[in-house]
Specification:
Structural class: alpha/beta
Strand content: 15-25%
CATH topology of the largest domain: Rossmann fold
Number of domains: 2
CATH architecture of the largest domain: 3-Layer(aba) Sandwich
Strand order of the largest sheet: 3-2-1-4-5-7-9
Helix content: 25-40%
Shape: elongated
Distance between the termini: 16 Å
Radius of gyration: 21 Å
Length: about 350
């Protein structure tokens, strides 16, 4: 008997995005869903009832359904159906062991995308692509869980798959500031003010990303006071081209740091939440980013920008270190692992049938 055709593969993705959790979880799930291995699959996203998140999924070409608060897995089970090869991809911190057990007991291949290793997993696959993933202790309740750990499994969007080596220019003329989809710490106005006041160079252009969940009033007011010095990007779908144009970036410690590493853009990393600490630490140890203390005066940031503007050798070394760490093929690797798990599940079900 031949394998079930890929067109019958059903992938249901459960993920949240919004002011509290930001955009990184959704972005990596969209990257996974866009992998070539899923080209002919049926993919459905179940997302919290956040209009901008639902709209982002739809613009990417996938079905998006809102999930009410208190999700117990019923919506995922309905979307999965009860026949054919099907997988539940769960990138939602509310999914505990009982939730995952329900999905597995229903016959789905269960894929957990997890940053914390805070529970034992009944899942078939667990993905933690962070630079510190192998420092964590992962446990399986099923005995057959496959753990996909570290940067080879980083799920970046299609634009990051094939990126040419950057040209690191001797001078820094373009600086990109991106502090997350929500900028929960509200640092963007202070960072922009610091850069504009202390740069001392009217030829430096600062491009600031205003995330879809970021209050933009103070940012827009500052940009209006600095015409020609600050350029705003409102909730862009993708930052690859902007990263390629930038000579230097100031970034929060989330998914964007990996995208910057992929394109080879030297980055200054600011920890905006405690769960970013290990990521920044390990990327700094690899030589891909320079961490700074987001203290009230932002003196550390000003020094870092000044140092890197003057040191083209260091910027080139950071660029090379980032590209050595992230190759942009992680989404396809994960997609192929899911396809393989679905095939193994189909064969096991056939063998078990009377």
């Amino acid at each position: 008997m031949t394998s079930a055709p890929l067109a019958r593969m059903r992938i249901v993705v459960r993920v949240d995005a919004g002011p509290r959790v930001g955009l990184g979880h959704l972005r990596r799930c969209l990257a996974l869903a866009s992998a070539p291995a899923f080209l002919d699959a049926s993919v459905c996203f179940l997302v919290n009832d956040e209009p901008s998140a639902l709209g982002r999924v739809e613009r990417a070409g996938f079905l998006a359904l809102p999930v009410p608060d208190g999700d117990s897995g019923d919506a995922v089970l309905r979307a999965l159906g009860d026949a054919g090869p099907r997988a539940a991809v769960v990138d939602w911190r509310g999914a505990d062991r009982r939730y995952l057990d329900r999905l597995r007991d229903a016959g789905a291949v269960v894929v957990s995308i997890d940053d914390l290793a805070s529970t034992a997993f009944p899942s078939h696959l667990v993905v933690n692509s962070n630079s510190f993933a192998r420092e964590l202790t992962f446990r399986s309740t099923a005995g057959d869980t496959r753990f996909l750990l570290g940067p080879p499994y980083l799920m970046l969007g299609p634009s990051f798959r094939d990126v040419p080596p950057p040209s690191i220019r001797p001078e820094v003329r373009s600086l990109l500031v991106t502090l997350g989809g929500a900028d929960a710490a509200g640092l963007t106005p202070a960072v922009l003010d610091c850069l504009v006041r202390r740069a001392g160079d009217s030829n430096l252009t600062v491009t600031a990303v205003v995330g879809p969940f970021t209050p933009g009033g103070a940012i827009r007011a500052l940009a209006a006071r600095c015409p020609g010095r600050i350029r705003l990007l409102d909730a862009p779908e993708d930052l690859c081209d902007e990263m390629l144009r930038a000579d230097l970036a100031v970034s929060a410690g989330g998914q964007t740091l990996y995208e910057l590493a992929r394109v080879g853009c030297p980055a200054i990393a600011i920890e905006v939440s405690a769960d970013q600490r290990d990521q920044i630490r390990t990327l700094a140890a690899a030589g891909a980013v320079r961490p700074v203390d987001p203290g009230p005066s932002l003196d550390d940031l000003a020094r870092a920008v000044g140092d890197l503007r003057l040191d083209v050798r260091l910027r080139r070394a950071m660029s090379a270190a980032g590209r050595a760490l992230v190759d942009g093929q992680g989404a396809e690797r994960v997609a192929l692992e899911i396809a393989s798990a679905l095939e193994a599940s189909r064969i096991a079900a056939r063998v078990a049938s009377p």
